[in-house]
Amino acid sequence: MKTSFRAFGIGLFIAGASFTLYEKFGPSGAIQDVSQYEEQLAAYEKQIASLKQQLKTGNEPNVATKETKNNAPKSEQPNDSSDEQDVVTRTIYIYENMSLYDIGQQLEAEQIVKNGREIELYLSKPEFSRSIQKGAFELHSDMTVNQIAKTLTGKKAEAE
Predict the structure, then answer these.
(1) pLDDT of 65-103, one tens digit each?
(2) How many CA atoms lie within 13 A of 50 on its CB side?
(3) Dihedrals φ, ψ of 151, to 5°?
(4) Span 89-153: which CATH code?
(5) d(CA 41, CA 54)
(6) pTM above 0.70, yes or no
(7) How do the domains of the chain map onto residue ranges?
(8) How far, rounded to the nearest angstrom, does the alpha carbon of residue 12 sit from its chain's CA centroid?
(9) DSSP state of 91
(10) Crossing angle, helix 2-25 and helix 27-84, to 10 degrees?
(11) Could you give the CA distance from residue 33 to residue 39 in angstroms, rounded to a whole number?
């Protein structure tokens, strides 16, 4: 009796495993996948064709606008110097166990750097990541990434 139950259980296990394998690797699943990929491929080809068409029709007006844009900054260059003089000065607070990502996001939020990810990657260098000091730091938006890193680590900034 015990052997017959064991044989019956093994038979059910083998049947279930074979159905699972057939369903996963059987021909009907592969055919459905192939047809689905063919439909996606056709849709992508149509999309590429429409984008190429837009590119062809859109290139001619863009050339004229690029020339206009190139001429415009030449006449406005004296005005740009006043915008560059707007230096943002903020106090940044670095706490214990603060991640480099948080530091970069804080600098970006305070408009000291335009890209917080850039300062995060720069601070991840071994010479900076091990020596970031906690405390309050006075930073300016005209500082370079290297100057900011040296300020946050307490290292002396080299004269540039």
Answers:
(1) 444 444 444 444 444 444 455 888 888 888 888 888 999
(2) 6
(3) -65, -45
(4) 3.30.1490.480
(5) 20
(6) no
(7) 1-80, 89-153
(8) 49
(9) E
(10) 50
(11) 10
